[in-house]
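If you are new to this repository, start here. Below is one unmodified record pulled from the training split, so you can see the exact layout before writing a loader.
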Amino acid sequence: MQGTPRAQRVSAVAGAASFWREAVAATVTGLGYELVDIERVPSGTLRVFIDRVPGRACTGGAGEFVTVEDCEQVTRQLQYALEVDAVAYTRLEVSSPGLDRPLKREADYERFAGHEVSLTLKLPFQGRKVWKGVLVRSEQGGGWCLELSGRKVSVKAAAKPAGKAGVKTAAQAAAPAAPAAQVLGFALDEVREARLVPVVDFKGRQSKDGAQVDAVAAESAATGVDGG
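And here is the target side for that same chain:
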């Protein structure tokens, strides 16, 4: 296992998927895992990020977290699928999405509601693009909000219409007796990137998350790759 350097990630669900992305998606989901993201870097390395979905059976057996064995199994199947489709690459890596898992789809927001999230807006609001807070479903219009902590927000911002990135108090969005809390309302099309904020108490997801298989190095799992 090794760390994965940051690079531009290409969403597996955004825009028209090329044939090799379709092959990756079909292989991963066919094994019962969720395809979170695909990253193809200029050096020729192909990185595939997978996750387990609660309640969904995987070929890797029962369990809540992605394991090294899961990554090895997906790697072997991807090698075969990519060879059949003659996909050129120099290195294949399969890993969990890590502690700072990206949220890409509406289903991701539903799954991780109640978790702390770091949100980057496409356009700045109140002079900043990055906001951090607990992800909650909005009580108005079916959108999403971040419950902010330790932030003072202007009254003018609180009057921003619902459905746009704006800040309002919980008392304005719900019953007058509700405790005041600052929240940032947003629509998904206003979001450039959203990620879980890593938990640092070594409990829960991160205890077994972050497993990665380097397809070149994991010879014991027959995952050596020379994509050619």
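Two things worth knowing about this chain: Helices lie at 19-30, 68-84, 106-111, 155-158, 170-173. The beta strands are 34-40, 45-51, 91-95, 116-125, 128-137, 144-147, 166-169, 182-186, 191-196, 212-214.
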